[in-house]
Amino acid sequence: MKKITITVLAVLLLLQVCVIASYVAAQSESKISLSSGQGYAGDTVELTVSVEDNTGFGSLELTVGFDKNVLEFVGAECEFSGGMAQFTPASAADGFAVLTYTDIENVTADGAVFTLIFRIKNGAPSGESPLTLSLGDGSFAYDGYDMKNFVATLNSGSVTVNKASTALLGDVDLDGDRDAIDLLILSRHNIGTELITGPEAIRNADINCDGSIDAIDLLILARHNIGTELIVP
Ligand SMILES: [Ca+2]
Ligand SMILES: [Ca+2]
């Protein structure tokens, strides 16, 4: 019985040590995150690199990798002041950017460190394009007169390229065709039974592009549907 009690106590003690060790380990690592963004082809997207639970760094070197077929690195800004920030702009052939910040003493503040500016390339495929974030060898923390490794848990974001909507004047239900259903929806809108909502449907409903959805648009669509006068395009 005594043996069992000692064994149980030993296991409990071991568990406690493990829990404390993992807690200490979790506490001693900074978290660095790269935010996500979205936009259409041709848009500029700003992403933020931020630090949480900062254990302190004298120099931070980060490499951000991206799909060069989707994104173009425009530039970066450092949100910290007092130290020296440097960015290695990626050339057209590269798919990464290196960002460094060095100070004369450990930086322990949390918050945004860098703002990254990307442009979504024209013709970029729609969908999510993941980015990578890695900590470079140039990262360190001051320890008195020495330098020690700066470690961090890294989380990287992505840029989502929105699907460009195609305008088709008269297609108010956005199914890709102009037909009797669109005419019915437009009629209901005009008599006030059921209003057309949503930016794309509203844009398509104003067929003559005069800024209002009215009987003229209804007439144009009716003529198109019976083939008297087709809407172009
Ligand atoms: Ca339609
Ligand atoms: Ca109109």
Sheet with the most strands: spatial strand order: 5-8-3-1-13
Under the CATH scheme, the architecture of the largest domain is: Sandwich
In whole angstroms, the N-to-C terminal distance is: 89 Å
Quick one: how many beta strands?
14
Judged by helices, strands and strand pairing, the structural class is alpha+beta
* Proportion of helical residues: 10-25%
Kindly give the count of domains.
2
What characteristic shape results from the CA principal axes?
A: elongated
Beta percentage is 35-45%
Radius of gyration: 29 Å
- What fold name stands as the CATH topology of the largest domain? Immunoglobulin-like
The whole-number mean of residue pLDDT values reads 87
**Small-molecule binders:** calcium ion
What order do the helices and strands follow?
Answer: HEEEEEEEEEEEEEEHHH
The count of helical stretches stands at 4
Low-confidence stretches: 17-26
How would you sum up the major sheet?
A: 5 strands, mixed
CATH class identity of the largest domain: Mainly Beta
